[in-house]
Amino acid sequence: MKITGPSPVTPNVVDNQDGTYDVTYEADKPGNYRIDVDLEGTPIKDSPFKPVIKSGTDAGNSGIGFFSFTVHSRDKHNKDKTEGGDTFTVDVKGPAQVAPKCQDNRNGTYTASYCLPEPGEYGLHVRLNGKDIRGSPFKQHM
Asked: Residue 142: pLDDT above 90?
């Protein structure tokens, strides 16, 4: 078996000892490939094969891009607030410019949603009435 294409490919051929073979291969680059399969020096039926290899997903380079969170506001006596009206802001700093959408849910909760367009580390300043909420600023990685 010989595989040619945009990147070198070494097939792994296993003889199943029953007249069949299992073949696995991994192409490093997407594109048009050619697979020539011979048995005892003679091409098998329909050889060569011409698959189009698409780029696979790399989990290590993948990440969540859209985020949303809700802040539950409390008063100075640690009681849940049930109405809105506070100034809610979220400032995101990082390798790309981000403009979060901030919403007063009018029930004591506030929701922010945003997209991180590039991988990297981001810092989030979450504020109610101009003051950081507990734990802010937060670090987020994409």
From this structure: no
The pLDDT value recorded for residue 33 is 97
What is the separation of C-alpha 140 from the centre of its chain, rounded to a whole number of angstroms?
14
Strand partners, 90: 126
pLDDT of residue 93: 94
pLDDT, residue 57, reads 86
Burial of residue 47 (CB within 10 Å: 0-12, 13-18, 19+) is middle
Boundaries of domain holding 81: 61-141
- Report the C-alpha gap between 139 and 126 in whole angstroms: 11
Are 123 and 67 members of one domain? Answer: yes
pTM, two decimal places: 0.61
CB 116 within 8 A of CB 96: yes
Whether residues 48 and 65 share a domain: the answer is no
Q: Are 115 and 80 in contact (CB under 8 A)?
A: no
